[in-house]
Amino acid sequence: MRIGIIGSGNIGGTAARLFAEAGHEVVLSHSGAPATLRDEVAKLGPNARAGTVEEAARFGDVVLLALPWRNRASLPARALDGKIVIDATNPYTPDLKVYDLGDSTSSEEVLKVVPRSRLVKAFNTLFAKDLASRGRRDLPLQDRTVLVMSGDDEEAKQAVAGLIRDIGFAAVDLGELREGGKLQQPGSPIYAKTLRAADVPAALGIEDAEGEEEQPPR
User: What is the pLDDT of residue 207?
Assistant: First the structure.
């Protein structure tokens, strides 16, 4: 699959490596010139190259957003029309406090910027070090570390779940973007936790997360 990544920091850079190692084509971008990513991309092998943010958005069948949430207005919205967009952002201020979004969620605010995208919230609940180290393609799904996701487009979620499996994790679907997104926000019981699928319902205090207990993780 062709994957564009907007943001080359800890999460974006780590995801680029994992996707490239899994055999996907990757274009990595950030707010600077592509040439400034030359050394980083060289370490990723032949499946990766650098590009502008616009190029990454147009290239990807799937586009991962790993830029600071507060910079979401800079996204090339037209280039993301109809694309599966993975929102890996979290609503932190520059001094690492969490923005007060009232009754909204961070991904609902991102969707206002890219309203014609097929947005899936994922890749935002693990530390980069855990994303980098805990993927195990040799393990059965029920024994893998979970990456949770939420969204309103079932087909888009299935595509994202496939990518999650490709890099050695198990996907657990928390439901629609609004309710599931609330469960993925900073401060939730599963935020920054490494869990197996069977652990998710108990961690959330619920019994209906679509995970290993009810059906194989997707």
Answer: 57
Extents of the domains making up the chain: 2-204
How would you write the chain as a 3-class SS string? CEEEEECCCHHHHHHHHHHHHCCCEEEEECCCCHHHHHHHHHCCCCCEEECCHHHHHHHCCEEEECCCHHHHHHCCHHHHCCCEEEECCCCECCCCCECCCCCCCHHHHHHHHCCCCEEEEECCCCCHHHHHHCCCCCCCHHHCCEEEEEECCHHHHHHHHHHHHHCCCEEEECCCHHHHHHHCCCCCCCCCCCCCHHHHHHHHCCCCCECCCCCCCC
Quote the pTM value.
0.93
How many Cβ atoms from other residues are within 10 Å of residue 212's Cβ? 22
Per-residue model confidence as pLDDT tens digits over 76-105: 999 999 999 999 999 999 999 999 999 999
| Residues of the chain falling short of pLDDT 70 | 206-218
Calpha distance 120→136 (Å, rounded): 23
Answer CATH for 2-204 from 3.40.630.30, 3.40.50.720, 3.40.50.300, 3.40.50.2300:
3.40.50.720
CA dist 110 → 3, 65, 73, 151, 184 (Å) = 19, 10, 8, 12, 14
